[in-house]
Amino acid sequence: MGRGLTAPAPVALKPAQAMSEIIKMPEVRGRMVDAGDSTFDSTPEQMAAFLHEESQRWGNRIKTVGITAQ
Question: Between 37 and which of 13, 32, 57, 67 could a Cys-Cys bridge form, CB atoms 3.0 to 4.6 Å apart?
């Protein structure tokens, strides 16, 4: 499981930078890995691109198999 901050880039920049420093700490990274979390570091722009790619990928799969909300 991963976590990410979603906000406009100017708003997300300072918290993203702080989180980047925190997840570089070996004790934090170790605990995250032990809990099954991902520990990749990204900029707000990289996170936006990742979310867009995932939305496209899963959106296409959902449409292909015909999944709808109930």
Answer: 32
Write down the residue that tokens 């979390």 correspond to: 37
DSSP 64: H
Task: Give the chain's count of helices (H) and strands (E).
Answer: 3, 0
Residue with tokens 């570091």: 41
Beta-carbon neighbour count of residue 44 at 10 Å? 20
Torsion sign over Cα 18, 21, 27, 32? positive
- Burial track 17-41 (b if 16+ CB lie within 10 A, e otherwise): eebeeebeeeeeeeebeeeeeeeee
Per-residue pLDDT tens over the stretch 20-35: 898 889 999 899 889 8
Tokens, residue 23: 């997840």
